[in-house]
Specification:
The complex is a heterodimer of chains A (about 450) and B (about 500).
Chain A (H helix, E strand, L loop, with lengths): L7 H10 L30 H13 L6 E2 L12 H7 L2 H4 L11 H18 L3 E2 L6 H16 L3 E5 L4 H11 L5 E5 L9 H7 L4 E7 L10 H10 L3 E6 L16 E5 L15 E5 L12 E5 L5 E5 L6 H4 L12 H40 L3 E2 L8 E5 L4 H10 L2 E2 L2 E2 L10 E5 L6 H11 L1
Parallel strand pairs in A: 1-13, 3-4, 3-5, 5-6, 6-7
Antiparallel strand pairs in A: 2-8, 7-8, 9-10, 11-12, 12-15, 14-15
Chain B lengths: L37 H4 L17 H12 L22 H7 L2 H4 L11 H18 L3 E3 L5 H18 L6 E5 L5 H8 L3 E5 L9 H7 L4 E7 L11 H10 L3 E5 L19 E3 L20 E3 L11 E4 L5 E4 L16 H37 L15 E4 L1 H4 L5 H10 L6 E2 L8 E4 L7 H20 L1 H5 L12 H6 L8
Parallel strand pairs in B: 2-3, 2-4, 4-5, 5-6
Antiparallel strand pairs in B: 1-7, 6-7, 8-9, 10-12, 11-12
Helix pairs in contact in B: 3-10, 5-10, 6-7, 10-13
The chains are: A alpha/beta (about 450), B alpha/beta (about 500).
C-alpha cells in the first residue's frame, strides 16, 4: 500500500528486532473467536488514476451547469483564489489541534485573528475559536444562556432557520429545556407583541435571527430590550455572515451565534462549514468551545495559547460547559483569509451588491409576473415568492431549463402555500435574474 | 545527520497591525443591474458605516502573512506526530484533489435529489464501507466530530429505552475514558457512573457487575482502550451489559487498531462513532473540521438522526426525512460532506488488503517503540498493546522531570510531543501512537530522541525542564494568560 512505508523486508526486520516472526503474534490480546477470518467485503483497491476517475465521474453527476437561486442558510459567494491557495499549505491543514503552543503559533495566531474579526463583525467583546456550524452554534448559545440564567424556557422566532430549530429541539429535549416558537408578522419580522406577552421571569433567552430565514432584516434591538426587561438573555443568530459587512451589528445582544460559510467557505453540500459564538466579556467563562488567548513566553515575547481550558471536557469531564472537543480551524482560517483579502471596503462592496441585485430581482418579479413577493420589510439577499396558481408547473419548467428557482417553503412553512425562498448574491448575474423572471411569467 | 538545525524564521505581526487604508486584494465585477439608492432599499438606521478595526491589505501582504504564520506550525507533512489516541497519519494528497472537484464544492444541500446523485453516491458508498468495517447494520454521516457522534449515539440509546417506557438514568464510563465521554453523557441528560480499571488496565469485570443495575442505560467503552489494550473480556462485558437490558456503546477513536482484524459489531457493540479524521485520514486542519459518523445495530436503526439515505423504486438515491422515531437532527444538512469524500477516497485506495495492512503496521510500529523504550521509560501496565503504548514519567520524575518537560524537550529534537497526562489513570502518562505511515527510519529517529531526552533527564535535568530551547518561542505563561484573558486584538 503506497501510504505505508514498510516493505516486506522492513516488516521482517522490525519483527526480528523484537524477537518475533509474525505480526500475528502482536494481536495475541484479541481473543481468537473474535477475529475476522475473512477479508472485509469492501471494493478492491483502486490505483490513483482509477480513484481520480471514480470521483470525477461522481462529481459530474451533480448539477453544475444550473443557475441556482438556492440560499436558505448556505450561500454561493465568490471565493478569492488566494483562500484555497493558502489553506492548502500543509503546515495549516495537516497540523493537529494547537495544544503545544511552541510548535503551533501559526494556527494559534490565525485563530486569534478569527476571534478578533468575529468580534468586529458582530460588535461583541469576545468570540470563540469557532464551532461545528451555525445550527450547533445557536444551540450552544441556548445551552449557555441556560447555564447563565439557570432558567429553562426559550422563546425562539419561527423565522430562525428551521434546521437550526430542529437541532435545538434535539439537544433541549432531554435536558428539560422548553422551546416556544414566536410567530412572524406580515412584514416578515418577528411578532414583538406576541414576544412581549410570552416573556416572563422564567425565560432564559430570546432567540432571533437576522437576516431571518425569509431574508428579512429583523429589529433585533427591540427583541433584545424586551428580553432584558425580564432578565432573559438576548441571542441573535446570523446565518448570512456577509450581511454583517453592511448591516448594523447586534451590539445589544448578549450572545451572537451564527454560520460564517458565506465568508470564503465552499457550499460543499452543507459542510464542513463554520459556526461562531460571540458574547460579552463577563460571560466568557460560560462559553463553549476553544479559546485562544494572547500572552507572553518566558522571555516576554508575544505568544498565543489555548486558554480557559478549565471550562472544557478534557479537564472538567461531565461538568464541562460543553462536550465539544474540536473547532473548525481550517474553515475558520478560510474566513480569516477571506476577510483579510476583502477588508472592510471589499466586504461592503460584496454585501451591497447582494442587496442591490436582490432588490432588482424583487422589483422585476413584482412588475413582470403574476406572483406575489411577500414580506415588505427590508431584506438582505433573500425573499419569498408566493406563486400564483399553477406555480408547481412553472417550477418544474424552470428546472427543465436548468434553473433552480430556490428553496420550496411548503414543507417548513405550509401556511405560505406554494412559496419559494429565492436567493440572489453578487455571483448572480442580471442574465440569471432575467431568465428566472422570464421562466416565472 | 542530526535531525534539526537552526534556520531563519520570520516574525509577523497581527493582521490588524498591518496594511494601510486604500490597499486592496479584491475586485468584483461592476454591478450589472439597475439599482435604487441604497437608503431607499434598506433604512439607513439598519446599516453600519464600516467594520471598525478591519485592516486593508494587498494580496501580497495577505499571502506573506499567512505563509509566515504557516511556517510556525509542526505538521504531519513535516514529520512523525506521536500523539496517542489522535492517529496522526499521513493525509493522502489525492483526497484533497478529489474533494475540490467543482461538482462537489458547488453542490448546494437543498438541490433536488435528482441533481446530486454523485454526492449521494459518495455518501452511500461511505456508509456501506463503514458498516462493513465496523460490523454494524446502519450508519449516519451527520455528526460533525467524534464528541458529536458520542452525543448522537447516546441520544439514540436514550430514544431506544424511552420507546420501552423508561429512558433510565445512568451511563457507566471507565476511568480511562476520554473526557468527551462523560461530557457527552451529561449533555444527553444522563448521570455518569465510573468503572474502575483492573491491574491489567482493562475494565474490572467484577466492579462492572457490581455497578450494573436496571437504571443503567448504557456502558460506554473504548476498545482498544486508551492504554492501547484490547478489552479481552469484551464478550463478557457485552453479555453483562445486555443481561440488564442496557446497550454497549463503543468510542471508535482507536479503530485504527482493528481494521479487518476484528469488528465491534461482532463482539457485542450496539453503537459506535468513527473519527474520520483519525483512522480515515481526513486532515486535522489545526483542530477541525472533523467528522464523526455513527454506526448502529438494527435495533437502533429507527432512531438515527433524520434524514437517512434511501433509494426510491427507480434506483434514485434521496434523503428520507420521514422518520417518526428519529432522535431528530444533530446538525443542519447531512454532515461534513467534504470529509466524507476524503474518507471514501482513502478506503477505496486501500481496499480490504490495504486496510488490514494499515492496522498490522500501525500495531507493529507501536510495539517496536514500546520494545525500544520500555525500561528507560516506565511501563505502568504490562498487558499486550496494539496501536499505541502508554509509558509514565516515573523514572524521570525522580529527577524532577515531568512528562510535560519531556514533551517540550522533544520539540528541540524536531518532534511534536506525545499525548501527555492522559489517560488520567496513569500518573504522568506519555501516550505514543506512531501510526502505520512512519518508516523505520523515522521511528528510529524518534526513539533516539526519546532515549536522548531520558539521558538528559539523568545528567542535566534543568536542560529538560527549561525546554524548548530551539523553538520560535519559549514556554508560554499559561496561568497568566488565563488570569487576564486577552481574546481579541484591541489596538
Amino acid at each position: 500500500m503506497r501510504y505505508i512505508p514498510c516493505s516486506e523486508s522492513d516488516r521482517k526486520s522490525l519483527l526480528g528486532s523484537m524477537g518475533l516472526n509474525s505480526v500475528e503474534q502482536l494481536f495475541s490480546g484479541i481473543p481468537e473467536n473474535l477475529r475476522l477470518r475473512r477479508l472485509l467485503n469492501i471494493p478492491a483497491a483502486l490505483s490513483e488514476p482509477e480513484l481520480l476517475a471514480y470521483f470525477q465521474k461522481a462529481a459530474a453527476q451533480n448539477a453544475e451547469d444550473y443557475i441556482s437561486f438556492l440560499g436558505a442558510g448556505v450561500y454561493r459567494h465568490f471565493i478569492p483564489v488566494v483562500v484555497d491557495s493558502l489553506i492548502s499549505r500543509s503546515e495549516f491543514y495537516t497540523a493537529y489541534t494547537p495544544y503545544q503552543a511552541e510548535v503551533s503559533q501559526g494556527t494559534l495566531q490565525a485563530i486569534f485573528e478569527f476571534q478578533t474579526y468575529i468580534t468586529q463583525l458582530t460588535g461583541q467583546e469576545v468570540a470563540n475559536a469557532s464551532l461545528y456550524d451555525g445550527s450547533t452554534a445557536v444551540t450552544e448559545g441556548m445551552l449557555m444562556a441556560h447555564r447563565v440564567t439557570k432558567r429553562k424556557k426559550f422563546l425562539v422566532a419561527k423565522t430562525v432557520h428551521p434546521e437550526y430549530r430542529a437541532v435545538m429541539a434535539t439537544y433541549s429535549r432531554n435536558l428539560g429545556i422548553e422551546v416556544h416558537t414566536i410567530d412572524y408578522l406580515p412584514t416578515g419580522r418577528i411578532d414583538l407583541s406576541q414576544l412581549e406577552n410570552a416573556l416572563d421571569d422564567t425565560v432564559a433567552g430570546v432567540i432571533v435571527q437576522s437576516p431571518n430565514f425569509f431574508g428579512t432584516i429583523e429589529d433585533t434591538a427591540a427583541a433584545s430590550s424586551l428580553a432584558l426587561r425580564h432578565g432573559a438573555l438576548s441571542i441573535v443568530n446570523v446565518c448570512e455572515a456577509l450581511s454583517l459587512g453592511i448591516l448594523r451589528p447586534p451590539t445589544h445582544a448578549d450572545i451572537v451565534t451564527g454560520e460564517a460559510q458565506s465568508l470564503g467557505v465552499p457550499m460543499s453540500f452543507g459542510g464542513p462549514h463554520v459556526g461562531f459564538l460571540a458574547t460579552r466579556e463577563k460571560l466568557v467563562r460560560q462559553m463553549p468551545g476553544r479559546l485562544v488567548g494572547m500572552g507572553a513566553d518566558q522571555e516576554g515575547r508575544r505568544a498565543f495559547v489555548l486558554t480557559l481550558a478549565t471550562r472544557e471536557q478534557h479537564i472538567r469531564r461531565e461538568r464541562a460547559t460543553s462536550n465539544i472537543c474540536t473547532n473548525q480551524s481550517l474553515c475558520a482560517l478560510m474566513c480569516t483569509i477571506y476577510l483579510a483579502t476583502l477588508g472592510p471596503r471589499g466586504l461592503r462592496e460584496a454585501a451591497e451588491q447582494n442587496i442591490r441585485k436582490t432588490d432588482y430581482a424583487v422589483t422585476r418579479i413584482q412588475n413582470a409576473t403574476s406572483h406575489r413577493v411577500l414580506f415588505p420589510s427590508a431584506r438582505f439577499n433573500e425573499f419569498v415568492v408566493q406563486l400564483a396558481n399553477g406555480g408547481e408547473d412553472r417550477l418544474q419548467r424552470l428546472l427543465q431549463k436548468n434553473i433552480v428557482p430556490g428553496f420550496h417553503l411548503g414543507q417548513t412553512y405550509p401556511e405560505l402555500g406554494d412559496a419559494v425562498l429565492v436567493c440572489v448574491t453578487e455571483t448572480t448575474t442580471r442574465e440569471d435574474i432575467d431568465a428566472l423572471v422570464e421562466g416565472l411569467k | 545527520m542530526s535531525r534539526v538545525r537552526q534556520h531563519v524564521s520570520l516574525n509577523e505581526q497581527l493582521l490588524f497591525e498591518l496594511g494601510s487604508p486604500g490597499r486592496r486584494a479584491w475586485d468584483f465585477p461592476a454591478l450589472d443591474t439597475e439599482s435604487r439608492p441604497l437608503q431607499e432599499i434598506v433604512d439607513k438606521e439598519l446599516l453600519r458605516d464600516t467594520v471598525e478595526g478591519m485592516p486593508e491589505l494587498s494580496e501580497v501582504e495577505v499571502v506573506r502573512h499567512f505563509t509566515r504564520l504557516s511556517t510556525w506550525n509542526y505538521h504531519i507533512d513535516l514529520g512523525l506526530y506521536p500523539l496517542g489516541s489522535c492517529t496522526m497519519k499521513h493525509n493522502p494528497k489525492v483526497n484533497e484533489a478529489v474533494t475540490r472537484l467543482p461538482g462537489f464544492t458547488n453542490a448546494h444541500p437543498y438541490l433536488p435529489a435528482g441533481l446530486v446523485q454523485g454526492v449521494l453516491s459518495v455518501q452511500s458508498a461511505l456508509e456501506s464501507c463503514l458498516a462493513e468495517i465496523s460490523g454494524m447494520d446502519a450508519v449516519t454521516l451527520q455528526p460533525a466530530a467524534g464528541a458529536h457522534g458520542e452525543l448522537t449515539g447516546i441520544l439514540m440509546i436514550r430514544a431506544y429505552h424511552q420507546a420501552r417506557g423508561n429512558p433510565r438514568r445512568r451511563v457507566l464510563v471507565p476511568d480511562s475514558a476520554h473526557g468527551t465521554n462523560p461530557a457527552s453523557v451529561a449533555i444527553s441528560g444522563y448521570v455518569v457512573g465510573h468503572i474502575p480499571s483492573s491491574h491489567r488496565g482493562t475494565v474490572d469485570l467484577e466492579a462492572l457487575r457490581g455497578l450494573m443495575a436496571d437504571d443503567v442505560a448504557a456502558v460506554m467503552i473504548t476498545n482498544p482502550n486508551t492504554l492501547g489494550i484490547f478489552e479481552s473480556d469484551i464478550a463478557a462485558i457485552a453479555e453483562i451489559v445486555h443481561s440488564h437490558g442496557a446497550l454497549l456503546y463503543m468510542d471508535g477513536a482507536n479503530l485504527n487498531a482493528m481494521l479487518g482484524i476484528t469488528r465491534p459489531g461482532d463482539f457485542g457493540v450496539d453503537v459506535l462513532h468513527i473519527n474520520l479524521h483519525k483512522t480515515f485520514t481526513t486532515p486535522h486542519g489545526g483542530g477541525g473540521p472533523g467528522a464523526g459518523p455513527v454506526a448502529v445495530k438494527k435495533i437502533l436503526e429507527p432512531y438515527l438522526p433524520y434524514p437517512v439515505l434511501a433509494k426510491d423504486s427507480g434506483g434514485t438515491l434521496f434523503h428520507n426525512a420521514d422518520r417518526p422515531q428519529s432522535i431528530g437532527k444533530v446538525k443542519a444538512y447531512t454532515g461534513h460532506f467534504g470529509m466524507h469524500v476524503r474518507a471514501l477516497c482513502y478506503i477505496l485506495a486501500n481496499g480490504p488488503e490495504g486496510l488490514k495492512e494499515t492496522t498490522e503496521v500501525a500495531v507493529l510500529n507501536a510495539n517496536y517503540i514500546r520494545f525500544k523504550l520500555q525500561g528507560v521509560y516506565s511501563l505502568p501496565y504490562n498487558s499486550p498493546t496494539l496501536h499505541e503504548v502508554v509509558f509514565s514519567d516515573k523514572n524521570q520524575d525522580k529527577r524532577g522531570v515531568s512528562v510535560w518537560d519531556i514533551g517540550k524537550r522533544l520539540i528541540d529534537y524536531g518532534f511534536h510531543p506525545p499525548t501527555t497526562s492522559f489517560p488520567l489513570i496513569v500518573s504522568g502518562a506519555i501516550m505514543i501512537e506512531p501510526t502505520e505511515t512512519e518508516s523505520r527510519d523515522e521511528l528510529d529517529a524518534f526513539i533516539a530522541a526519546m532515549l536522548a531526552v531520558a539521558q538528559e533527564a539523568e545528567t542535566n535535568p534543568e536542560l529538560v525542564k527549561s525546554a524548548p530551547h530551539n523553538a520560535r518561542i519559549r514556554r508560554v505563561d499559561e496561568a497568566a494568560a488565563a488570569r487576564k484573558p486577552v481574546l481579541r486584538w484591541k489596538g
